[in-house]
Design goal:
Two copies of one chain form a homodimer. Chain A is α/β, with parallel strands linked by helices. Chain A has three domains: 86 residues, Arc Repressor Mutant, subunit A; 135 residues, Aspartate Aminotransferase, domain 1, CATH 3.90.1150; 235 residues, Aspartate Aminotransferase, domain 2 (3-Layer(aba) Sandwich). In chain A, helix 8 crosses helix 13, helix 15 runs parallel beside helix 17 and helix 16 packs across helix 17. At the A-B interface, strand 4, helix 4, helix 6, helix 8 and helix 11 of A face strand 4, helix 4, helix 6, helix 8 and helix 11 of B. The structure holds pyridoxal-5'-phosphate (2 copies). The site of one pyridoxal-5'-phosphate has 13 residues of chain B, from helix 8. Chains A, B: Keywords: Aminotransferase, DNA-binding, Pyridoxal phosphate, Transcription, Transcription regulation, Transferase.
């Protein structure tokens, strides 16, 4: 081989090598099926490290023109088309593997696959309401009142003005949060609000704190963004704010994500004292707080729990909520309220992401929230959720007795359960699926202990006992399978 | 000062220094209003470079506890609360500046501010239809046929199954593209499809090629993602595919973004020969193609122009389109079709971004597309757009004579104009706004020559002559202002 890489060039040596072979392969000098020199031989020949050759071959591999076959070395895989020209269609598998955004974990992907399909699972995994809990009448009324001779062009990117005014009034009335239409951004659920915050207010390498366990772990959005995440264990009264101080001192955390009321998955509520202390710490160290509050209007005891934002004197809190858990998750109406400068920054990003929210769901949400019928619906909803919780708890006790441990929540839609013994989470998940039941394994929510989240809001009352029975069967068969295993 | 940074530690020295002062400031040793040592003095004292001190002070500044005041050095700005404790609310301005996602440029931001508001601008900047071109009757019918007793939970994240089937049938019938429901992903407009492709199939440092000028330049989404973008000049017949070869050889571009039919902003269509050649090059070098096609159904001459995807034998093209330019942009219904593995990857990301599209607009879109009335609407739409184009062209000729140059397009909604002489783009933009007219300056679309894009689809027929007159007035007053300027 006469050619040698030129180490004085700016182009990295492994790229030079990969370019060299790419050209030769495209020219037909190495036909499909032939082998490239062995890594060791080529390294000696070109007078470079073997690792450089490996990088070069990896590069050719990712271009889709060679395959690295164990025991055979590096084999050319380029195809020719009918006219005899070399042909290399885009290597989609490589594109798919390469993207910056991380994939959901396999279990979450499996759970999502059945979202919105007609598969007859008893679904204790998804956080949405059962058909009888949706305010169908209210939705129909709101829907039938729309004229649709309205303007059908792009909506205001920050959200339809009337909807923002309605949300602002709703925040005042139901959550004691002062806001104005211009400090509200309409988002595609709380989900998109979290995503926008991450993309607009943080940068790779920044440190943040999130609850452990937490809904946040079910999302790779933090790690896709290159953030360092630190854990705040959730206790009976929620997180311990003092831990934020030490995280700050050690890691300079810039933001804390909390779901303080009827926390997903534990169902706990951050105590009043802790909420106060959290705000103090935030304004002592200048740490921003994101309050994710999808559940505060679902309290079974009618006690109001004040949102952090309603106690926030200094504007340290970004408040995120949505209609998903109280009206309809399919509408995809959520919002965020916070300082003007933040709302404007996020609005600009939303333009880039999706050019604003769809118009019709916004008009419907606005009708619905201002109809004066929300109170009646919420009362019905709370009663309905509580009865589903009781059915779930009773069924669990009947099936698993004291083996299963949990703290029944006072609101929300999730029951966080501890099951005894050593067991394999994935096995339980698959056995339950085989039995027609889906639940959320604890690890998906960042929990390292053996826990399961049973979300009781979606399953029909009549089917809850059956669902829990099937779940318990899966658990028991798992235990007996383990017990029968030869040691 | 007894303390010195420890250079043997992992923590960077500037962080050690900033931490040191932060603690002292929080302890009250440097009260609000006091100055920190000068950069020079401190550098000498601690035996480090002055640039290290600058980094440390910048860090304190970004924490919001000092301000760097010209001529005064670095001043502590920490406030105390009523109880006399130090108080530092999150420094939102710093958060807002810090995010990874880039901001839109100032002109684009100004244009978006008036989207969806009632401001009485004659809007030649936004790519949407005028009220008389929307299929209002069709929308009303589709709307009134909805039951809304349907399932109101999360939709399938890939998109409502019936809508995907309808889109697949539409693609076959109207665009000669074979697809199946499982190879279609419903997105929030073409916009979100582009965003998903970037986030899931590319990584920072990757090279891509985009048309020059192009809609893509109005979006910072490519640069936010850290991509290197290379330009493909758009000629009368579209881009020259051979340039892709040389870009590939030089920069290893991984993906080409094109809008081949009735291109935004030039209105040109990639010739049949060039389309064929583009596909050949794609499958010779393994370069993926993204075909963004919002306009192909708007041809004024009823000639069909085949989409790239309809000619794509090897699956090298990801095809993106939407209902924005033919039905209603406010619905936010777009889609992408391509290889299964890509669609699945993008679906997973869409779950993370917004948990799927809102349900009601999907049901409406599906009714509308399958109603059998689309043809009639499209015929009306084309006639309407052509008449708007003629009104615009006539008004331009009447106002600016041969001074303005353009190539009238055979479809689409944009007129790309060249205005003579040397003139200041931003001044023209602002003068036009003062005159009640908005247009898109060429630089927003990546053009370096003095061009303007006049989008004629939204303005009422009766107001087009007036709008163009006001635009021409702005242009003339700009010239006379320049002419009057003392030299
Ligand atoms: C704590 C929490 N945040 C956010 C979300 C996302 O909800 P949505 O995007 O539907 O508003 C959920 C849904 O389960 C949740 O439990
Ligand atoms: C070429 C092109 N692509 C994409 C878009 C985005 O359109 P939407 O997201 O509304 O489908 C536009 C809108 O102007 C466009 O012209």
């Amino acid at each position: 081989m006469e050619w040698k890489p030129d180490k004085s060039l700016q182009v990295p040596v492994y790229i030079q090598i990969s370019d060299y072979f790419e050209t030769r392969i495209l020219n037909g000098e190495y036909p499909s099926g032939s082998s490239l020199p062995s890594e060791r031989a080529l390294a000696a020949l070109l007078d470079v490290n073997r690792s450089t050759i490996i990088s070069a071959y990896d590069q050719l591999n990712s271009l889709g023109i060679v395959k690295r076959v164990k025991g055979f070395g590096t084999v050319v895989t380029l195809q020719k088309n009918e006219e005899g020209n070399v042909k290399r269609v885009p290597n989609w598998e490589e594109y798919v593997k390469g993207g910056m955004r991380h994939l959901n974990d396999p279990i979450t992907r499996q759970i999502h696959k059945i979202v919105g399909t007609d598969k007859p699972y008893l679904n204790f995994a998804i956080g949405e309401l059962s058909p009888d809990l949706f305010p169908v009448k209210l939705m129909q009324e709101a829907h039938s009142q729309l004229e649709l001779s309205q303007y059908l062009g792009y909506e205001h990117i920050q959200g339809n003005l009337r909807l923002r005014e309605t949300i602002s009034e709703h925040l005042r009335q139901y959550r004691h949060i002062p806001s104005t239409a211009s400090s509200v951004l309409v988002t595609s659920g709380a989900q998109q609000a979290l995503q926008l915050i991450i993309q607009c207010l943080l940068q790779p390498g920044d440190a943040i704190a999130i609850e452990d366990p937490s809904y946040c772990y079910s999302l790779p959005i933090f790690h896709s963004a290159g953030l360092r995440t630190y854990r705040l264990p959730v206790e009976r009264n929620g997180i311990d704010p003092e831990q934020i101080v030490s995280l700050y001192k050690q890691h300079r955390i810039k933001m804390v994500f909390v779901n303080p009321i009827f926390h997903n998955p534990t169902g706990t509520t951050l105590s009043y004292e802790r909420r106060k202390r959290l705000l103090e710490i935030s304004t002592k160290y200048g740490i921003a707080i994101v309050e994710d509050d999808p559940y505060s209007l679902t309290s079974y005891d009618h006690d109001t729990r004040s949102t952090l934002k309603s106690m926030d004197q200094d504007g340290s809190v970004l408040y995120v909520s949505s209609l998903s858990k109280i009206v309809s998750s399919g509408l995809r109406i959520g919002w965020i309220t916070g300082p003007q400068s933040v709302i404007q920054r996020l609005t600009d990003a939303k333009q880039q992401l999706d050019f604003g929210h769809s118009n019709i769901p916004q008009w419907i949400a606005s009708q619905l929230l201002s109809s004066g019928e929300l109170d009646n619906h919420l009362t019905k909803l709370r009663t309905g959720l509580l009865s589903k919780l009781e059915l779930t708890v009773n069924a669990l006790r009947a099936e698993l007795g004291d083996e299963v441990r949990f703290q029944a929540p006072l609101g929300g839609i999730h029951l966080w359960c501890e099951l005894p013994g050593e067991w394999d989470e994935l096995k339980l998940f698959n056995l339950a699926i085989d039995n027609g039941v889906v639940f959320t394994p604890g690890s998906t929510l960042g929990s390292s202990s053996r826990r399961v989240r049973l979300t009781y809001s979606k399953v029909d009352d009549l089917l809850i006992p059956q669902g829990i029975r099937k779940f318990a069967e899966a658990f028991r068969s798992l235990n007996s399978a383990t017990a029968n295993k030869p040691r």
